[in-house]
Amino acid sequence: MNGRWWKSKTKPNGKKAPAEEKKHYMDPEYTKVRVMDFDLKDLVALPTKEIDLNEWLASNTTTFFNLINLQYSTISEFCTGDTCQAMTACNTIYYWYDERGKKTKCTAPQYVDLVMTFVQKLVTDEDIFPTKYGKDFPNSFESLVKKVCRYLFHVLAHIYWAHFKETVALELQGHLNTLYAHFIVFVREFNLVEPKETCIMDDLSEVLCAPLPPHSHNHVTER
Ligand SMILES: [Zn+2]
């Protein structure tokens, strides 16, 4: 089912869309571009025992929130109630559950807005993400961080499935891939998102998150 979630008026190369185009983001042309030549695991690991795990999770989660919000904002004009009537990625539709646990259907831009508002409120709440020295994290901290990471994953997955072409047109696929790889390695390191949630993007995760071979500094790989 090609082109299910994006509507492109013209194909950039004038070719008819092949079936595999639905995974445009898996094209080696895009995945071969590795911005960082070092092991992402070193970047996400808790630096020393001096740093509290919760502080590390809080600071990284806040950074990912800001970066993913920024990445989404680059394509947000293309993500409308018409183009994206549901929050989709692969064959999954994400539904929003309100504070009373009621399932609600919303368009992708509405869903992203709910996610960003929810996360913004959490990360700026001094009782949940304390920034002052000596202030304790609440017992619910870990489960809230997991919730935030799951929502942020939905946004990234939607960008890949529905707005990758627009990201490429803006030449921001390198940023997106780097952000995605960093995020995935981080959530894996601390078991923050269930594998059953991230499995829809496993093929990309494998390509982008695999450590580079030790002798290879030549990024070009043959198809
Ligand atoms: Zn969209």
Automatic annotation (TrEMBL):
Keyword Methyltransferase carried by entry: no
InterPro entries: MOB_kinase_act_fam (IPR005301), MOB_kinase_act_sf (IPR036703)
Location of region: Disordered: 1-21
Composition bias type Basic residues, residue spans: 1-14
Gene3D superfamilies from the UniProt entry: MOB kinase activator (1.20.140.30)
SUPFAM superfamilies: Mob1/phocein
Chain residues that bind Zn(2+): 79, 84, 158, 163
Listed name of the protein: MOB kinase activator 2-like isoform X7
Organism this protein belongs to: Carassius auratus
Taxonomic placement: Eukaryota, Metazoa, Chordata, Craniata, Vertebrata
